[in-house]
Amino acid sequence: MISRSIMNKVENVIIFLLSILIMIFLFNIIINFEGDAFSVIQKDYLEGFTVVFLSIILEVIPFVMIGTFISSIIQIFVSERTIVKIIPKNRLVGLIAASLMGIIFPVCECAIVPIMRRLIKKGVPLYIAVTFMLAVPIVNPVVLASTYYAFSDQTYMVFLRGFLGLMSAILIGHIIGIIQYKNDPLKNNTLHEHIGCSDEHDHQHHHSCGCGHHHHSVSVSKRGFFSKIIDIIEHTSLELYDVGKFLIIGAFLSALMQTFVSRSYILSIGQGKVSSTIVMMILAFVLSLCSEADAFIARTFVGQFTTGSIVGFLILGPMIDIKNTLMLSGSFKMKFVVKLITIISLVCFIMAMLVNIIGI
Amino acid sequence: MKRFNINELIWFIILISFPYYIYKLFATGEINIYMNPKMFKYVLFSFCVFVLLSIFQIRRIFNSNKVKKIKLGYIIFIIPLFLAFVVNPDRLNARIVSNKGVSIVDNNSDNRGKSIINNNEDSIQIDINTNSDRINNLDAEKFRDTLENVYVNLDSMMGEEVELSGFIYRELDFSTNRFVISRLLMSCCAADAQVTGLLCEWDEGSKLQDNVWIKVTGIIDSTTHYNKYTEKEETIPLIKVIKVESIKPPKDQYIYP
């Protein structure tokens, strides 16, 4: 298949770049053995990078596991027919319902990508899936509580974050629904789970677990509970591989940025109403913080930046960042990911500017 | 000999290495470098899931009948494991963290209006903390509470004596006898850690080296600081140091919000 060979090439390029980076690190380690003052600094950077890199992975992996686990449960227990039945026919009702899902479905942004991907594969309309993905990490009791805790003296930040996040998610979902009306945003090679044994890798995978996954929706009711559990676990393992590799690259890039690009340098770029908003949004994207922690970081900017730019930071961060972009690009077409990021940034920027103009 | 699937075997090794690494982190206590203790339960959860997945993976190692090309994606999973075992960092360096920003300026100007209310709440909090048996954390908690108190109630705390322990941090534009007595503030994991502290002034301050752990005793005072972001002069707390003692770095370097 053509798409598969392209995918392989992309993967090879990524691996090539990563191996160059590893070479640089190995080089650093060798230099460190000489032990002069210069190399002490090198060692500090290497250690700092490693700590940040590993801490992101350690922090995010449990949530990715929850995400892949829920995704596997949906894959095995929920049929396409049920989903069609649940989804409201009215577009607006559907969007609002999707955006409020976070209240009963409190997962953070690290877990949401595998779930959203699974929902789309199961036939959920794209606009609902996108709104769901963007709103859940913001409109979420845990996240709102941590925002409240961080901004205990400015409770209106919680409302601004929740309300504007909700509005943006609905708006972005709606726009995406219009733009991506006919095109399928998923990469072709990820469709195999529906089509069946279309390529060698999956052929082997399906048979190695005794039964193709495409059979499940048909035969699930006839099979024992224990074998369903095994299916879920093996599915989780496969998805962890799929999502995990992009998560690790994302964590790698984010740690690289945090270690080598000084934050005060980013901050010194812009102080005006417009430029500060842009800077804060770039920061939210680059830092890839968990949506439960970002409020504490945002708080440290109060007084240095306009309220609007902090709101921009708080609503953009959970929606999209480096690690989410990479996880998305693992299963969606690059064109779609770029489009999505552009729309998210534009909408969040407008929301942030609104706050700036109203002047809270 | 039974043929086994090399891909599944590599995946099994990766799956089992992660929980081994997590186990090692907890056994040596190094986990404290990476995480806020309130996140430990999530790390332990991932430990359990990894073990579970590895157990089920064993079954699949011997399940193949074809020799496959090795999946290159596994290299990506080996990177963090490689770094974890080869570099094996034992602390988070302040030089790196300072790259991510330092807060010595009072960021919540709104706070000042509420100083009296906050003062009462804080003093109650401190009482509870002293009574609890968390003596190990006392030092870190004292640092955090003092910091909050001083920022919030600067006017009423002028002239009071404080004692703080932390490491020395300097910015390039500091005059030579000034430094920040600082700690790393971590809300979730090391990725969001940042340097926070109080500005100190000591006549012999230039003799102190960066990143060295000290205990300072001093009088609270205030000074103006030019905030280059808002382009305004701001009043910030300053400690006029009376006494400096050098101390060993504590086991738990961080403070938690």
TrEMBL record, chain A:
<feature type="transmembrane region" description="Helical">
    <location>
        <begin position="304"/>
        <end position="324"/>
    </location>
</feature>
<keyword id="KW-1133">Transmembrane helix</keyword>
<feature type="transmembrane region" description="Helical">
    <location>
        <begin position="12"/>
        <end position="31"/>
    </location>
</feature>
<dbReference type="InterPro" id="IPR052923">
    <property type="entry name" value="UPF0718"/>
</dbReference>
<dbReference type="GO" id="GO:0005886">
    <property type="term" value="C:plasma membrane"/>
</dbReference>
<feature type="transmembrane region" description="Helical">
    <location>
        <begin position="158"/>
        <end position="181"/>
    </location>
</feature>
<keyword id="KW-0812">Transmembrane</keyword>
<keyword id="KW-0472">Membrane</keyword>
<keyword id="KW-1003">Cell membrane</keyword>
<feature type="transmembrane region" description="Helical">
    <location>
        <begin position="92"/>
        <end position="115"/>
    </location>
</feature>
<comment type="similarity">
    <text>Belongs to the UPF0718 family.</text>
</comment>
<feature type="transmembrane region" description="Helical">
    <location>
        <begin position="51"/>
        <end position="71"/>
    </location>
</feature>
<feature type="transmembrane region" description="Helical">
    <location>
        <begin position="127"/>
        <end position="151"/>
    </location>
</feature>
<dbReference type="InterPro" id="IPR005524">
    <property type="entry name" value="DUF318"/>
</dbReference>
<dbReference type="Pfam" id="PF03773">
    <property type="entry name" value="ArsP_1"/>
</dbReference>
<feature type="transmembrane region" description="Helical">
    <location>
        <begin position="336"/>
        <end position="358"/>
    </location>
</feature>
<protein>
    <recommendedName>
        <fullName>Permease</fullName>
    </recommendedName>
</protein>
UniProtKB/TrEMBL annotation, chain B:
<dbReference type="InterPro" id="IPR048447">
    <property type="entry name" value="DUF1980_C"/>
</dbReference>
<protein>
    <submittedName>
        <fullName>Putative membrane protein</fullName>
    </submittedName>
</protein>
<feature type="transmembrane region" description="Helical">
    <location>
        <begin position="70"/>
        <end position="87"/>
    </location>
</feature>
<dbReference type="InterPro" id="IPR052955">
    <property type="entry name" value="UPF0703_membrane_permease"/>
</dbReference>
<keyword id="KW-1133">Transmembrane helix</keyword>
<dbReference type="InterPro" id="IPR048493">
    <property type="entry name" value="DUF1980_N"/>
</dbReference>
<dbReference type="Pfam" id="PF21537">
    <property type="entry name" value="DUF1980_C"/>
</dbReference>
<feature type="transmembrane region" description="Helical">
    <location>
        <begin position="9"/>
        <end position="27"/>
    </location>
</feature>
<feature type="domain" description="DUF1980">
    <location>
        <begin position="131"/>
        <end position="257"/>
    </location>
</feature>
<feature type="domain" description="DUF1980">
    <location>
        <begin position="12"/>
        <end position="102"/>
    </location>
</feature>
<keyword id="KW-0472">Membrane</keyword>
<feature type="transmembrane region" description="Helical">
    <location>
        <begin position="39"/>
        <end position="58"/>
    </location>
</feature>
<dbReference type="InterPro" id="IPR015402">
    <property type="entry name" value="DUF1980"/>
</dbReference>
<keyword id="KW-0812">Transmembrane</keyword>
<dbReference type="Pfam" id="PF09323">
    <property type="entry name" value="DUF1980"/>
</dbReference>
